[in-house]
Amino acid sequence: MAAPKKGRRSPGSQGRPGRALAVILFAMVALIGGMFISGHTTPRLGIDLAGGTSFTLEAKNQPGKPNAINTANMNTAVGIIERRVNGLGVSEAEVQTQGPKHIIVNIPKGTNAKQARQQVGTTAQLYFRPVMTTTSGGKTKQPSSTPSPSASASKGKKTDKGDQSSSGKPESSPTPSASTQGRAIPEALKADKADQTGKADNADTAVKADKAAPTPTPTKTPGGGQTGQPSLSPSQEKLAKDFAALDCTTRAGRAAAAEKAANIKPTDPVLACSQKGDSKFVLAPAEVEGTDVDDASSVFESQNAGGWIVQLDFNNKGAKKFAKVTGDLTKQQSPQNRFAIVLDGEVVSDPEVTQGAITGGRATISGGFTQQSSADLANVLSFGALPLSFDIADETTVSAALGGEQLQAGLIAGAIGLALVVIYLVGYYRGLSLVAMASLGVSAILTYTIMVLLGPGIGFALNLPAVCGAIVAIGITADSFIVYFERIRDEIREGRTLRPAVERGWPRARRTILVSDFVSFLAAAVLFIVTVGKVKGFAFTLGLTTLLDVVVVFLFTKPLMTLLARRPFFGNGHPWSGLDPKRLGAKPPLRRRRPAAPGPADTKEA
Question: pLDDT tens across 211-223, in order?
């Protein structure tokens, strides 16, 4: 007779239940430890249970767009703001219009007020503009109409605050009307390069201005200097005066400059401040817009100085435009080889382009971000710019819509439902009810800790519909135990002992449990996708607890039954074990009848 192969398990093989129990025990300890380490020991409650903050946003009239405030733009703004503040749709934030020009945003208690204010009030108008000139952020001396040749031709050393002369000192009075490359501002921002007028030492390339405001080419003096005064148009004179008077060192100055810059057309030049106020800029018309950005993400950069950055991915159109503008900037000298990344009128970053055109359709925004600030900016840019600009007209604290009484009533209902399930299990399954209650306890611990950790993780907020979903999940979890217990009982009724019954009944019960949980999870997923508002909380909780039901049954209930089957109380079918063969009406074991032993006469006859 051939010996059985050692590499294969028989249908009655019991595996190693201790490993599965160790895995789920480790997961429980890790989740509980993570909960205490994070400093959050209770779930984040929704606005209907805990109250929160209400923002009233008022749409502003757009320059040159008298009919911008309309129903279509307001609805688009509501959708974008809701995606910003609601994340996956389970943070329970409420966004709705009120009247023709107001939007109400209700955010649950526990959300960072500063972060929420930034998410709801940021327009997220993003532009990539070439830098024409830059200097320190304070007021500068009013430039004369005749730019200094030595200052114009100087290629000084670059610092964080702009260009420096060869002596290493910052330029005291940068002249935006005639930049270091000979461009006139603003009419000559895109002027073509002229032919060289001579071969003298240090001769600069003369640039043709537009027809409306020509910039005459300076003439050479025998000593190598330049004479002649370029005439400036009124718009150029005003731009130069505004640039000299711009003070970015004060918060009021930066706010005024940002508001003015945000309302200027992308095709016009603009004055802007850096976010810290240490630099001010004259910027050319936008070459790439935020609408050309396909996605944005927060990334930690380990190279160079390291730190958190925002990584932008352009669409095909944006990638081509970005490659073209960076290729053109490479041919310029500082500061005109920089492009400013302007967000809502402020310069977030002004990197220098020195390595040729940047292809691949990807760019980064750096600027001393923290993990939270980079994630917030990426979140805002990912969902696009608002079609309108908004002012926060009012910010108030709102009380809970339902309050603690309704939450208490919901919890009491859940406790009553759980008690009824326990009574049924004890009365019908007796000793097996201990396995069911232990499994329900494990499922409750996993559900609670995960809900707590999802609060700071993805902004999950527990509202009353979500509590209802958790209560419904009690029945789904108990149903899985009942399916498995009945399969075991069926095997015992067929005349098998408990240990083979536990293993033979598992494959059949497993298929039924997986099909049932798949249907429940599919229903929750469809409900989550097609619904809006608070119903998403119910669907999310139902889907989460359904997945945990599979984990608990596979890693806890089945291994625990395998271990208990080895105990005499269950293995021998004690009347209170719930597995008594007599009470179950088990058939007697089928035995073959032994043939009678041959007698002496039969032996002699044979």
Answer: 333 444 443 433 3
